[in-house]
Design a protein that fits this description.
heterodimer; A: alpha/beta; Rossmann fold; four-stranded parallel beta sheet; B: alpha/beta; 3 domains; 13 strands
Amino acid sequence: MKDITAVQPTSSTVALFATCMVDQFLPEAGIATTRLLERFGVQVEFPQSQTCCGQPFFNSGHRPEAIARVKATIASLESYEAVVLPSGSCSAMIKVEYSHLLEEDPGWKLRAENLSQRTFELSEFLAVWNASTAPRSPGTRTQLSATYHDSCHMCRLLGLRSQPRQALAATGVELLEMAEPDRCCGFGGSFSIRMPEIARAMGVEKLHQAERSGAQVLVTADPGCLLHLRQCADSQDGRPPLLGIEHLASVLEERTR
Amino acid sequence: MTTTVRNFRQTARIALDDIRLQNALDGATGRFRKERDQALQELPDAEALRDHFKVVRDATLADLGAHLREFESNALKAGAHVHWASDAAAAREVILAIARRNGVRKIVKSKSMAAEEIELNAALEGAGFEVIETDLGERIVQLAGEPPSHIIAPAIHKTKEQVAELFQAESGEPAPAEIQALTEIARRRLRQVFLQADLGISGGNLAVAETGSLVLVSNEGNARMVTSLPRIHIALIGIEKIAPTWDAAAVWLSLLARSATGQPLSIYTSILTGPRRPDDVDGPEEVHIVLLDNGRSRLVGTKFEEALQCIRCGACLNACPVYREAGGHAYASPYSGPIGAVISPLLFGLKEYEALPHASTLCGACLEVCPVRIDLPRMLIALRQASVSVGLPSGNEVRAFRSAAWILAKPARLKWVRWLLRVLQTPFKRGSRVLILGFNLPALAATPFRNWQRKHGRR
């Protein structure tokens, strides 16, 4: 794991980089992220010039297209003191891969490194911001047990394992660990399109492990994992899914109302 | 051999539908992972040792030629013959010539991935030699007529019931599906063969330059029989598996078995330096060491050199969630799993193995367990880039990525293309998914998040 020490933000205004997946397929996670941050006194701005961080192009080997997205995303976000994302893997793209991709262009590389230090995955931001997700009125909180799925880039590239769990636990969620919380769910971007049978087998395995934890809901901080796992759950022999599959932002938002 | 995405998926589907195979694979890889984790925890500072080993492997490869020459000179001094094989055909030729010259009839082999790589058995059998694998796993896949499906556990995909069937078919005698009994059957059968064979062929886990020695690790003792009973011993080893000194070899050995099977050391660690000496009670009269290049030297000094640091422990296979579902045969290469997905295209051709760089979610579990910390995800992405730059992806794929890049370049463009796609997706929508042209994709939400934000921001 690389040492990516984020700079503590001083201003209460952040840019929200929603990610293309949330923008196009999962707007409710973006809405939850916005409401959650505002609840903690953070002013959320949404730079309308943002689209996609470039990860799909980078991961599939389409480097020139990736670099175009990377530069556009830097230009869109770099004027903010802090940038928050409801996605671990897009955060890792910005924080870890951007400066590698721009290695040969010192000016851009510097801008990438600059942005990297001010980019936060949602639960990472909440921890740095010292946002207490403790329920306002603990007595009225409904019981909820959750099992947390560590998305690969978030835990292995960014080392963010405790932050999402702590945020959940602080809202009174009972955390039940599954057997291999950091085993890949099988999404892998274009992987799930190229090799759908294997992606599905991996997703089903993940769901079985999650179900065996006894939790009511599987929580993940990545929209990609979320959509993939929901699909795997929907197509499981037509039986109703045993557990809910929710974005971290949605659970936190609902439980801090 | 070639592995297209279609072939990979086809073979993987067979593995996915085979419940016995899935159980065998889950059980064995799970045990390997657990044992590996424990064995590393027993070291005073496994992380520091891995860092150190990385430095050792880096430095060795930086001066590979010199270390190989030193190895050759010391092996010659010890009385071994050293052969340089630039490719698979050259290696096969060297080995066939030795066998022919000596009137060999029966050959015993211990496990060697390099021999799998050069398809040695087929060449030897084609030339009329009888070849018997003596590693239990290799013996099982030889009887089944299949290639190995795991770097260190060739028959990982087989259950004991299937092994019993194979043994019974070979001997005609009943074989119970019990591991102890099956091992005894194999032992009885192989004991005879060891005594009859006139040539033993082994691989090599590492070669130590400062003494010209070969190191072989095994758990069954068969490697010791193969290298000491027959009159001639041939060892086939890749040129990258060189330790300059015994200090380096010690670090290597302290991580190899731990990463592979979770053992501090394998049951047998054999150190072989030259043929038998006059006062030795046993050992081969002739020792030949075949140093195999076969595409390796081409990687030195490139961004793929790191792949040569691999010591073939197989830990990345056990960790890989794709391997654990698809099994080893889908890779159609002696080297499967994450390391196979990187070195098969590098050694045997990117066009021939175009699917393998894509047989990964880039989850990084391989990097996490690799004793040499080989950055396999980075190399998988670099191979995908290389595929694009030599034009391997289909026209449709290239058009899809270019169109997506064009659409995402301007939010205004994204807005109207999205509107159009939303209309077009309607007839193909099933719940929250869109099923089109054989793809199962998430459906576009009714309203994008940016629209909500625009209204929200104006409050």
